[in-house]
Amino acid sequence: MSNKVKSLSEVVSQIPDEGAVIAFGGFAIARNPIAFVMEMIRQQKRKLRVYQIVAGMDTDLLVGAGLVERLEYSGGSLDRFGRLERINEAIDKGKLDVREYTGMSMSLRFLAGSMGIPFIPTKTLLGTDMLRVLVEKNDDAVRVENSPFDGERYVYLKAIKPDFAVIHAQYADEKGNVIIEGPYWDVETAKSAKKLFVTVEKIVSSEFIKRFPEKVVIPSMYTSAVIEVPFGAFPTSVYKFYDYDQKFLMQYAEINKNKDEFEKFINEFVFGTKDFVEFLEKIGGIRRLNEILADPVYGY
Amino acid sequence: MTINFTTNELMAVTAARLIKDNENVVVGLGLPQIAALLAKNTHAPNLNIIYEIGVINPEAEEMGVGIADPRLWYKSEYFTSFVGTLGNVLQKGLVDVGFLGGLQTDRFGNINSTLVRSEKGIRHINGSGGAADIASLARRLLIIMKHDKRKLVENVDYITSVGYLRGGNSRKESGLPMCENITIITNLCVFGFDENKSIKLLSIHPGVSVEEIIENTGIKIEIPEGVKTTEEPTEAEINLLRTTIDPLKLYIK
């Protein structure tokens, strides 16, 4: 049986040092692949082209670290904790080539990518300034045409087929069958890529997968690598495993407003730690993580 | 009998009364969620409440900080993806009411949730998320917002979500399906739209003066003769809000 289990540094080193086209599965403050993103910062993967439905702390970190050249997304936030100020500032200063969509149009572009089709029609985006700006930039990912079937106007969205997709999930087996508990907004994103890297809280046996096949939302043929990283989404939440770390997110929402503070943060917590385990020890280790463990009934 | 109520309670009750039984609504955190739950606990027990992240009909015990907060997903009926909620349910035309908020709303009910323009230049704030999708494809729109001169403006700085676009038939001409109606509920009054799809005052909240509304609205509005007063909440609605729906008074204070 093929074993796709790898180490985090090994998998991140598979990504070219410049110009990777990569999609992320995080959503605001839920299931962000933080460990993966931090390792990408340590290994300095530059000039990234990033795709995401709703961005979270994951992409804010990458943009703040100066590694992203272009971002296609539908906005994002740290929910009530704050904004993605590293992304916002990069857009305002013209340092990031941003292409803005709606949540549904991004998810449909990933869906088309996951189906292997070149484009998908939709009514959304019509009339919006997102569409106006995309057309002004001559973006080849959108075309407005009348449908040959009903004669109505639609936006034809180009499929996203990134080189890599990275998501953080609860479970996978060694073959790469992935179980996501709770809503699974990142499934189409995951399936759209040429190579899917999944960090998981726990690697489970195929016996476990075969007991709960209805919980598998990504079958193994999509998956290139499985990496076990407990607490790999910290400080964002993983449903049924742990809650978001309120204190850490509040702190991050403060420091990401200021470039120098952000750089201090990156130097201390990312460059100042050799891996994610050391990062977790630095922020307080088991004592702190115990405070956010999920209640099995509530899932948070 | 007159009862005491807060402005947020009045806003939640006004929104709840615009929802009918057996409808499907897409909501976000805060007052929209409170309004939908109030409707479900009163006249609309068969209401389906959808969160775009991929969650349907949860029974949250705590309010949470956003739709990505698992507190909001507790005891759901269905988990899915963005494609499952917006791509399927919304795009198929199954959403009756979409709740929206934002930085600015204009004369035609367009919403900006992306950026602000000032003397210092453009500041990017957030983006659409699913808001523009909901505005484009839900049958009726309910906009809940704070009444402020800088928020209710003639033209929004950026059209994130389309209301009636430039009024008249322009929304349909852009290729979007026409929506049945748009209602804006603020802390001072309720707005609807006239036959030209331009904003019009529907009712003024109890205790609010016409001058106050004119002063706080960045859109030139006409005050119709004998404009109505927004209907007050009942004691039963207020009790439900305070004891069952938002006992910690996070949103109804």
Automatic annotation (TrEMBL), chain B:
It holds the Pfam family CoA_trans. Transmembrane segments: none annotated. Gene3D superfamilies: Glutaconate Coenzyme A-transferase (3.40.1080.10). Its EC number is 2.8.3.6. It is an enzyme of class 2 (transferase). Coiled coil: none annotated. One of its GO terms (molecular function) is 3-oxoadipate CoA-transferase activity. Keywords: Transferase. It comes from the Bacteria. Belongs to the 3-oxoacid CoA-transferase subunit B family. This is 3-oxoadipate CoA-transferase subunit B. It comes from Thermovenabulum gondwanense.
